[in-house]
Amino acid sequence: MTGEKSVVDKPSTLVWAVRLLYLECAALAGLTIYLIVLDLTSSSVNVGMAVALTVFAALGVAAVFFVARALGRRQRGARGPAIVVQLFTIAAGGFLLQVGPSWLGLVLMALGLLVGLLIVLPPSTRALGID
Fold first, then answer.
1. What integer pLDDT is reported at residue 7 of this predicted model?
2. Cα(129)–Cα(131) distance, integer angstroms
3. Burial class (CB in 10 A: 0-12, 13-18, 19+), 11
4. What is the pLDDT of residues 70-99, one digit of tens each?
5. 36-66 per-position pLDDT tens digit
6. Taking the complete model, does pTM exceed 0.85, yes or no?
7. For residues 41-76, b (16+ Cβ closer than 10 Å) or e, as one string?
């Protein structure tokens, strides 16, 4: 009986959506570290633009982390921001399809679609208390 209840409490669709959101957070953290290294080692750089881009990436890390954590805690209001994050992920993938690398654009678009789908599937919706 306990095994059945834990499955209802934590559906695999929601668990995987949260895992993939944390993966997105880790990828953004890696991008932020890469941008910091570029900021510190580049000889010709527009300092204002470089710092702004790095700060924006760092804010993205924090935002995605808090959305993933809220979704993992099954907070009802986390679904909307999680969908918005996925729309941004799909948009970034579309941009990369145009300017390259195309393979990364396809991966981002597929990831955004997958996580968005996992969040709106009925088991996830029930677990979040949205009926």
1. 46
2. 6
3. buried
4. 999 999 899 999 999 999 999 999 998 999
5. 999 899 887 788 899 999 999 999 999 999 9
6. yes
7. eeeeeeeeebeebbeebbebbebbbebbebbbebee
